[in-house]
Amino acid sequence: MMAQRYRITRDNQQIDDEQKAITLEECKAYFDTQPDMEYTSVFTVKGEATMSIEGDFFLWHAGTAVIPFRHYGGDLYVSGTNEAVIPKMIEVASVLRADIAED
What we know:
It is a single chain. This protein is an alpha+beta fold. It contains three helices and six strands; from the N terminus they run E-H-H-E-E-E-E-H-E. The chain has helices spanning 17-20, 24-31, 85-95, and strands at 5-9, 37-46, 50-62, 65-72, 75-79, 99-102.
């Protein structure tokens, strides 16, 4: 079974192309105000093997879970495997004036 992945995007909005990209600066400004979020440029996944992924990640600490929101190509991506992410994703999309698309 494939994990559900969501994209927070402004692609479908009727706005100028320059405003469609969600910038890293916008994300940092918003997530800096969230006490349960932290920015990292390397996300490390520990399992049977440890894998580090470079990029722009905002890690949401939801209880014992750490859920990464990844900024990439003017959008934010997040996995929907943990249901707790749904309300947080809606909040983030609302603040960034963006839509949520299943990816």
